[in-house]
Amino acid sequence: MEPVYRWPQPLLQVDDLRTYFYTRRGVVKAVDGVSFSVAPGETLGIVGESGSGKTMTSLSLLRLVPQPGGKIVGGKILFEGVDLLQLSEEEMREYRGSKISMILQDPMASLNPVYTIGEQVAEPLRQHQHLAGKTLWDQVTEALRLLRIPSPRERLENYPHQMSGGMRQRVVGGIAISCRPKLIIADEPTTALDATIQAQYLALLKDLQRQTNVAMIFVSHDFGIVARMCDRVAVMYAGKIVETATVRELFSNPQHPYTIGLVNSVPRLDRKVERLASIEGQPPALLNLPPGCRFAPRCYAVFDRCHVAEPPSIEAAPEHFAACWRVA
Amino acid sequence: MTSGGSVLEARNLKKHFPVTRGLALQRTVGWVRAVEDVSFVIRPGETLSLVGESGAGKTTVAKTVLLLEKLSGGNLLFHGKDVSQFGRAELREYRLNVQAVFQDPWGSMNPRMRVKTIVAEPLAVNTALSKQEIQRKVLELLAQVGLRPDQADLYPHEFSGGQRQRIAVARALALNPQLVVLDEPVSALDVSIRAQIMNLLKDLQTTYGLSYLLIAHNLATVRYMSHAVAIMYLGRIVEYAEGDELFEHPRHPYTKALMSAALPAHPDDVTEEIVLSGEMPSPLNPPRGCHFHPRCPQAMDVCREVAPVVTQLGGSHQVSCHLY
Questions:
Q1: Chain A residues inside the 8 Å CB shell of B223
Q2: Which string of b and e fits B97-108 if b means at least 16 CB within 10 Å?
Q3: Do B269 and A227 touch (CB under 8 A)?
Q4: How many domains does one find in chain B?
Q5: Which residues are A46's β-sheet partners?
Q6: Helix (H, G, I), strand (E, B), or coil: what is residue B76?
Q7: Inter-chain touch B53–A221, beta carbons under 8 Å
Q8: Mean pLDDT over all residues of chain A?
Q9: A120/B223 Cα distance (integer angstroms)
Q10: Which of B151, B256, B263 to mutate to test the interface with A (most CBs of A within 10 A)?
């Protein structure tokens, strides 16, 4: 039996999010009408290639779009029913690192090289929960213990450069989990790690989720990570979500030609493949997009309508949506 | 292993880097044994892959093959002849025959040169072709890697990552090499572009009978591309096999762990869950006995004391492990 993921009230509901960049050469629509939701304890994967808008989507959720130039120009981001886009900057800070936190690709860029890791894990706890003294340090140690950092008490005094890449990324995880957030956004958290270290880290995050029931958004270019980690997947292409489905449904029954192409172009470890299918061409520049479907120039199943009108998100099966005229 | 029918053979390659202290009077306080006793054979028209995590020594092996690093020991044989005995002319010949494509095509191209100049450079330097002949050859090379003639006048920044990698391949092929060292040629590329470049490399191999030395960490990529695979850990080859043997019957616990760590192609794929504890130790101070024993789930007493020797398992399969 296929398990069907019917989540209760969403924790996060994103509606028609638009993040644009105003450049000298024109408006780059990095995120162009993106909608999705995440339920408590659920893991949503956002997959796409570079330039698909996946990272800008995740940064928009925390209102951390690069300035100047970048701007959220429309949509709603409802977190526990509150529209984050309506909050003042002051109010928004109460969410970042407390209810929603983030793990980025490069731990060295997230950590401050001149503070001990203890100080850095303590910072959000001081800021948001006003802890001090023994309670604070107990919480800090607990966060590091959750991330299975060996001898956490002693490690508090270490600086980031004294740790390996895998350990640093665990510290970043410890900072993210310290205030017991409801949602963690992980943007390519293991891309910089070696294969066996990546496997350790992913297993750790899964465990963490079982223990704390935190919801996660996993942003990645790698379908393998999605297959291992996620409950549901949204596939992005050129600023739009082209397909959403539960992870099993997406891999077994992909509907959008882009998703089909991606799934077929990944080499397999478990069997001999004589020739990989590949998607010819490359993603469009986001300046001056052509009318119609953005994938049309690379699509093998393209027909007249694709060049004229942009396909809406169409329900192909229960809880499975694809933005493709072929599905209609 | 014999040198019969080999393009390149490595015999007990060693590369040790000195670790020094002090500014004016440098003294050597230790050695990093980046590569230790690595042997392999690359046959005509075939791909040998070196797989391992960072610090395994695979890139150092590639650099010694490209003569960018001097060997501390061992021999490289090119068509059976010892490269260290080569004179000027033979070395030049070797360098023409052994080319490379690196991970980041940005780092290997002059941003101020047009594509046609980039691809023409090896021809202009190393051949006596006339300007017209070079130009014709450049357009031919660009066509082979799937670029249009009008793109010859563009600069590297006007291309996407995948196209830049095509340019790098065109340049590597300009002198009709016999062996191309591919150092993580697709890992910087997007998923949909990776398959394009892998297919291109395979097609070129079939057309020209090229040999590849592929350096990679992604096992699925390696399975797709290779005729033989060597798994490296801390400077040594721990397992070697040809064809699909290694993927179907991995023997070394490290190989098994790597296969288990590889991400699934489908959520229903079940892999044997082997999560290794710890990290690769420093090559400056490697553990006694088998280098892998501190992380090995099947370590025995003997592993802590004695370094394993290469064991033949039948066919081409070799493993360095006390279990066999």
A1: 267-269, 272
A2: bbbbbbbebeeb
A3: yes
A4: 1
A5: A219, A234
A6: strand
A7: no
A8: 91
A9: 42
A10: B263
Alpha helices in chain B (DSSP H): 58-65, 88-97, 115-126, 131-144, 161-173, 191-208, 219-225, 245-248, 253-261, 301-305
- Give the residue extent of every domain in chain A: 12-99+181-322, 107-180
Q: Domain A12-99+181-322 falls in which CATH fold?
A: Rossmann fold (3.40.50)
Nearest residue, CB atoms, B190 vs list A198, A221, A252: A221
Chain A residue numbers touching B192 (CB-CB < 8 A): 49, 261-262, 265, 278-279, 282-283
- Does A265 contact B192 at a Cβ distance shorter than 8 Å? yes
Query: Cβ separation of B53 and A282 shorter than 8 Å?
Result: no
Report the residue from A166, A222, A275 with minimal CB separation from B279: A166
CA distance A185 to A103: 6
The predicted model scores a pTM of 0.87
In this predicted structure, what is the pLDDT of residue A8? 58
Strand bridging mode B8-21 / A320-322: unpaired
- Among the partner residues B53, B54, B265, nearest to A266 by beta-carbon distance: B265
Q: Which residues contact A232 (CB under 8 A, 6 or more apart)?
A: A5, A42, A43, A44, A45, A244, A245, A246, A247
Does B87 reside within a domain? yes
Q: What is the average per-residue pLDDT within A309-319?
A: 92
pLDDT of residue B285: 80
User: In this structure, is residue B3 part of a structural domain?
Assistant: no
Express each pLDDT in A187-204 by its tens digit.
999 988 888 888 889 999
Report the candidate in A38, A47, A13 with the shortest Cα–Cα distance to residue A225: A47
**Structural domain range at position B147:** 8-320
Cβ atoms of A276 and A268 closer than 8 Å: no
Q: Is residue B2 part of a domain?
A: no
User: At B143, which CATH number?
Assistant: 3.40.50.300
Cross-chain Cβ contact B224/A276 below 8 Å: yes
Per the CB < 8 Å rule, is B268 touching A269? no
Across the interface, of A166, A272, A278, the residue whose CB is closest to B195 is A278
What integer is the mean pLDDT of A48-72?
A: 92
Residue range B103-121: mean pLDDT, rounded:
90
| Inter-chain residue contact B261 with A196, CB threshold 8 Å | yes
Nearest CB to A267: which of B224, B259, B276? B224
Question: What are the chain B neighbours of A280 within 8 Å (beta carbons)?
Answer: 196
Beta carbons of A186 and A15 less than 8 angstroms apart: no
B135 lies in some domain? yes
Q: How far apart are CA A108 and CA A160, in angstroms?
A: 8
3-state SS, residue B212: strand
Contact of B236 with B290, CB cutoff 8 Å: no
Phi/psi of residue A306, each to 5°? -60, -30
Q: Where are the beta strands (DSSP E) in chain A?
A: 12-23, 26-38, 43-47, 70-79, 82-83, 100-103, 183-187, 215-220, 232-237, 240-246, 314-317, 320-322
Asked if the peptide bond before residue A3 counts as cis, ω within 30 degrees of 0, the response is no
Q: Decide if A207 touches B, using CB distance below 8 A.
A: no
Among A196, A226, A251, the strongest candidate for a mutation testing the B interface, having the largest count of B CBs within 10 A, is A196
Size of interface A-B (CB pairs under 8 A): 121
Closest CA to B42 of B225, B205, B212, B203: B212
